[in-house]
Amino acid sequence: MSARFNLMKENAEVYATLGKLDTLGRESSIPKDLQELIKIYASSLNHCAFCIDMHTKEALENGETVQRVMGVNAWREAPFYTDKERVVLELVEEVTFIHQHGVSDAVYSELEKHYGEKEIGELYLLITTINAYNRLGVMSRLQPKVDK
Which Pfam families does its entry note (predicted)? Predict the structure, then answer.
């Protein structure tokens, strides 16, 4: 499959605006390891190969374990995620598939046990931004470089 167009080249202003949202998310109080798990899981749900490749590598470079990176798609069955991480991964799923039933009261109630309103807003921003990147990547068929 070949890429359709280069978003960064053809729509630089749009891409830069999305980049500002991404920067706000990266600078949030959400731990970097959780930020990367959010990005890997959403990218996997959206089938964005470019973003999966990029965020998996970033997570590993930042000290995340191979086990947690590889297991994120089976987080419900895997024993190596905290309850605080699990509710975020469930939120990622509900936001990514928001058309199905929105964000459930059960997930929101569980979020409130672990995070304050500011942090919940930061999580929403992180999840929304990666979903936007994923959709742009999939639509434009953005391709990761093949490792050698």
Answer: CMD
Single pTM value for the model: 0.92
Distance CA 128, CA 107 (A): 17
27-43, pLDDT tens digit by residue? 999 999 999 999 999 99
Under DSSP, the state recorded for 12 is H
List, in order of start, the domains of the chain with CATH numbers.
Answer: 33-139 (1.20.1290.10)
What's the number of CA atoms in the CB half-sphere (13 Å) around residue 25? Answer: 20
Q: Where are the beta strands (DSSP E) in 5-90?
A: none
The rounded distance, in Å, linking the Cα atoms of 49 and 57 is: 12
Token representation of residue 20: 């500002």
Q: What average pLDDT is seen over the chain?
A: 93
| Vertex 7 angle, CA 19 and 13, to 5° | 50
Give the span between the Cα atoms of 108 and 87, in whole angstroms.
9
| pLDDT exceeds 80 at position 4 | no
What type of residue sits at position 88? V
Which two tokens mark 112? 């409130």
